[in-house]
Structure formats: C-alpha cells, structure tokens
C-alpha cells in the first residue's frame, strides 16, 4: 500500500480520482455529504480525453454500452434556428460519446469497486467531510 487517501465528494471527479489512486495502490476512502451516491442532471458529452481516461480506469466498456457515439450535433434555439453544429472533431480530436449522467456515475462506482479497496464507498453514504 502506498498510503491512505481521503477524497471529499463522490461526484464524477471524486470517483475517478478514487479509482485511479486505488489502482495505483493507495487505500482510498470517499466521503460524500449527500445521503446517497447519485449524479444529478440529464446527459453528458465525453470527448476523447475523457474516454481514454475511462479506459484506463476500466469503465469504458460500460460507458460505451450506454448512450451513443455522436457523429453530428446541432444546438437549436427556441425558434428552431440552428445556433451551432458540428461533429466529434470540432474543438477536440477523436471520439465524442453522449450518455446519461447517472450511467457514467454508476460505471465509475463499479470501476472503483473492481479496481480499488473493497469498502471504499461504503462509508461515503453518511459521512460529511465538511
Ligand atoms: C449544465 C452543465 C453541463 C455540463 N456538461 C458537460 C459535458 O457535456 N461534458 C463534460 O465533460 N462536462 C460537462 N459539465 C461539467 C461536469 O459536469 C463537471 O465538471 C463534473 O460533473 C464535476 O464533477 P465533480 O465530481 O468535480 O463535482 P460535482 O459533480 O459537483 O460533485 C461534487 C460532490 O462532492 C460532494 N461534496 C461537496 N462538498 C463536500 C464535502 N465537504 N464533503 C463531502 N462531500 C462533498 C457533493 O455532494 C457532490 O456529490 C457540465 C456542467 C454543467 C453545469
């Protein structure tokens, strides 16, 4: 074991950091102030860097199985006008994937359970680091 790490917050960032540290050999505990492990919001776009990182964390297969790869997108105003449009390569390189936030969160929780210490999230439900 390299050492002990405590992470405040079981959002997408905290879960990814926890999994990464646990895979490196740290004993990780995640502290979440909320009553449950959950992710608010609808969907999320993930670009190449996020997808590559999820692959390293062992969560990519789950993520790709949910949602869809994006070949082309449009942002449409209330009057139907296309405000912006593009493909995966606009503003970034490589893939663009779109999926429900809850599915991404669940995939990271599962990746952490597989790659890290067994109980790393159990205490997250009712402890507040604040
Ligand atoms: C409208 C919107 C759309 C977005 N769309 C995209 C997108 O398409 N693609 C993309 O890559 N990113 C997108 N983002 C950004 C992305 O959602 C955020 O970067 C990401 O969710 C941040 O995750 P986080 O874990 O850092 O923070 P959070 O999701 O805010 O999680 C923080 C967690 O820490 C907990 N917490 C806080 N303080 C404490 C404490 N003291 N003790 C214990 N627990 C604590 C909170 O309860 C929460 O669960 C979007 C953001 C917004 C607002």
3D structure, described in words:
It is a single chain. The chain is of the alpha+beta class and 130 residues long. The chain has a single domain, classed as FAD/NAD(P)-binding domain (3-Layer(bba) Sandwich), CATH 3.50.50.60. 33% of the residues lie in helices and 25% in strands. It is built from four helices and seven strands; from the N terminus they run βαββααββββα. The strands form three sheets. The chain has a three-stranded antiparallel sheet with strand order 3-7-4. Helix 1 packs parallel to helix 4. Flavin-adenine dinucleotide is lined by residues 8-14, 31-34, 44-46, 50, 128-130.
Defining traits:
binds flavin-adenine dinucleotide; elongated; alpha+beta; 130 residues; two-stranded parallel sheet; disordered C terminus; 7 strands; three-stranded antiparallel β-sheet; FAD/NAD(P)-binding domain
β-strand percent reads: 25-35%
Which class of secondary structure composition applies to the elements? Answer: alpha+beta
For the CA atoms, what is the radius of gyration? Answer: 17 Å
Number of helices: 4
Number of strands: 7
CATH architecture classification: 3-Layer(bba) Sandwich
Shape: elongated
Instruction: Name every ligand kind in the structure.
Output: flavin-adenine dinucleotide
Q: Please outline the major beta sheet.
A: 3 strands, antiparallel
Please write the string of helix (H) and strand (E) elements.
Answer: EHEEHHEEEEH
């Amino acid at each position: 074991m390299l050492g002990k790490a405590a992470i405040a917050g079981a959002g997408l960032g905290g879960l990814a950091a926890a999994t990464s540290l646990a895979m490196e050999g740290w004993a990780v505990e995640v502290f979440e102030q909320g009553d449950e492990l959950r992710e608010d919001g609808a969907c999320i776009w993930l670009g190449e860097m996020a997808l590559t990182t999820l692959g390293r964390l062992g969560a990519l297969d789950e993520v790709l199985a949910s949602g869809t790869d994006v070949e082309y997108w449009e942002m449409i105003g209330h009057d139907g006008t296309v405000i912006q449009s593009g493909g995966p390569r606009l503003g970034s390189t490589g893939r663009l994937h779109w999926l429900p936030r809850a599915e991404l969160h669940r995939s990271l929780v599962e990746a952490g359970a597989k790659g890290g210490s067994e109980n790393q999230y159990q205490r997250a439900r009712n402890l507040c680091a604040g």
